[in-house]
Amino acid sequence: MASMGAMTDDPALTRSPSASVEDYVKAIWEVAGSGAASTKDVAERLSIAPPSVTNMFVRMQEMGLVEYERYRGASLTRRGRGEALRLIRRHRLIETFLLEHLGYTWREVHEEAERLEHAVSDGFTERLAEFLGHPDQDPHGDPIPAADGSFAPDDSFPLGEAAAGQRVRISKVGDDPSTLEYLGDHGLVPGRLLSVREVRDLDGVVTVEDEDGGSHALGEALARAVFVRGE
Amino acid sequence: MASMGAMTDDPALTRSPSASVEDYVKAIWEVAGSGAASTKDVAERLSIAPPSVTNMFVRMQEMGLVEYERYRGASLTRRGRGEALRLIRRHRLIETFLLEHLGYTWREVHEEAERLEHAVSDGFTERLAEFLGHPDQDPHGDPIPAADGSFAPDDSFPLGEAAAGQRVRISKVGDDPSTLEYLGDHGLVPGRLLSVREVRDLDGVVTVEDEDGGSHALGEALARAVFVRGE
DNA sequence: CTGAATTATTAGCCTAAACTAATTTAACGA
DNA sequence: TCGTTAAATTAGTTTAGGCTAATAATTCAG
Predict the structure, then answer these.
(1) Do B124 and A131 lie within an 8 Å CB cutoff?
(2) Closest C-alpha among B73, B126, B52 to residue A103
(3) What residues contact residue A145 under an 8 Å CB cut-off, 6+ apart?
(4) Which residue of A9, A89, B101, B210 is most buried, as measured by CB atoms within 10 A?
(5) Which pLDDT band, with edges at 50, 70 and 90, does B184 fall under?
(6) Contact flag, residue A105 CB and nucleic strand C, below 7 A
């Protein structure tokens, strides 16, 4: 009496995604954008065994979040992409709040935001956006997707790919703790303006001068970890 | 080689409690304080079937959070009590933030805090406390346990138990939505100062006068839902 | 175009935390 | 004290989301 045949109200499609599913959606987005993410890449990013990922891909397809074909990876559907952007919006707004109002340091912020992003409602998110003055970038300089799902793609690139003479602004730095610590100690933090003095092809060392006239020579590894945007 | 016998590092004791376990701890505290909570009471408070509760009691005993005896209920251990108070501290600080800084209404606050309290770290909690100026009461007037676990017990009581002539302040109101709505519409919100005009034994109707001289007659059900503290 | 090496999948198992149905214990009134 | 009722427990099942070991598909180098 209650169910009148195979209409389109599959229970798997309706329920809002669990924290795990959200993590997968975000990982697929980060690893492959609008393309297809491989089992391996997602498994690595989430530190989860590959078979668990295969398994989840199947379930996420049933939920309508991805298009999945065996041995071919999973790509986000329109709905999946929407979920990913909503999650990234939450994450970046939360990070902004933690850094600007609660005195978090760069090191501590990520882990906390990673947990909170699964717990806040859309209502919370929009009020927090209001509280923060509707920022369109987080303190890393990464764009914050709008509430309607639109967002400006990230136009930053690794410092190693800059050209000599260019003036750039640091937008974010790789989140490996020791890298972060070194860069922090030397004042190379997001928002900082740099002039690129030399990019040496031979060994990949990039020499930059900061706003205070200080000079820094960064090896290949560091030049790959510092992301900048043209000024 | 790795495990050298039955020493005291049981894995069940170490891992930090899941959101479910936290809910149980809090429920036991709310239902029974330092006494023993019955299966039924906890089941009702959490809207969970009784057998699930029995099951959880056993596991929580293994975790060292409760003392449990079959057919006799569960009471919190020192550690369990500590967890409960930490959770309540988080909850009340979060509510304070939502109400005072994000523009939440009384109606919306509870649900959001209920989810967030499981997601925030101790570090977040203490920074939030700092941000809020280390309040020792939430906007309901309920005491906020200190970070070290000490706290002033709640000395509020239902309006129905007040005496005629007494001056009292509303500390909290029952969280049934329709009750909340009615009381809100009539300005009977936490913080409000009242003079008790009459407490009629016959039918339990309590008549009060508010700060603006308005008079309200509250029946038994409402008088039980409004908690006050002597002024 | 064939055979490693890489990647993915299947099969089977585990845990936390819920459920229902059936049974047992406790408690209380006559 | 006995029997009825209310409460609690046991037994067995379910679902989400992990895991390992074994197998299969794909890809790439020669």
Answers:
(1) no
(2) B126
(3) A85, A86, A88, A89, A92, A151
(4) A89
(5) confident
(6) no
